[in-house]
Give the backbone structure.
Amino acid sequence: MSTPGARKGAGGLLRGALVITIIIAAAGAAVWAFVESREELALEAERERPIKTPIRVSLQNGAPTIRVDARTQERSGIAVTKLAAAPYTAQVRAYGMVLDLARLTDLANSYAGAEAQLNIARAKIAASKPAFERAQRLYEDQHSVSLQAMQSAEAAFRADEAQVAAAESQLRTIAATAYQEWGPVLGRSLVEKSSMVTRLIERRDFLLQVTLPPGLSFPEPPAVAAIERGRNFRAAITFVSPATRTDPRIQGVSFFYIVPAESGVLPGMNVLAFLPSGAAVEGVAVPAEALVWWQDRAWVYRRIDPELFMRMQIATDQPAAAGAYVVKDLPAGAEIVTSGAQLLLSEEFRAQIRVGEDVR
């Protein structure tokens, strides 16, 4: 039979054990929470730490190259195209200026006015001359008209005759001025009121003065050439005649060409002109989508091996259709990037920035 004291001692021990168990459990939970927290912080720090990719940019013989593995190429959409041979006619680069035709318009209006005055004078003399001849005949034969009447008829005829001569002289002067200022083709077109001058005055066409670099010339100027306004816009131009003056800034041989108003040019604009020189040149056509522009120059990425690309500058003096260029510095069959070239350029310069940060 247990005594009250014994029961009281047992209860105390039980309560002590329970407290110890609770303390141990709390300590374990705290340790677990601490460990979990440290692991979470470590993972978070790992996620937020900048990812340093391997530097894949280098120089080979002074040319920048970038190495991209096949998986990255596929994931980034990098695609290459083999260049096909594109024989073309060599072109001379010249300088074009769209002319203001206010003076030509004034001459056309003056010529039309002088022509109208001539027609009026001729109409007057067509009436005054027979009247004078009739009065003269009547006076000399029968004296049926007075001397004063005959003299008045003669004065009217002589005045109309002088007006005709003056109008003809004015017309010849304006025509000579047109020939002198604009050359025989445009001058004749003005005199004959042909469609060439009409379209120019109505601004359906514009007149372009094309000037060759000093020292260059053409035995026969090409009948058709092209101008470039911006990187991806070209328009055909048609030969008119040798120019009557040169561009004082360039001092080269000049020609007049006509360009349609649909080309978007306006008087006062300066454009580049490309005139076929007649010499056949072998080259390849580089499509517009392969080009990347940096420092106002055109570049392409050529694939050297399956994972190595080299950035190369190309000449842009031989433009082709749709913003492409024909170049001589790349062989037929060369592989260039036609999708993802801008991505490679960005990656190249990012890698250079990372190298600079690592050095510091």
Observations:
- Helices lie at 4-48, 70-76, 102-141, 147-192, 195-201, 341-359.
- The longest strand covers residues 270-281.
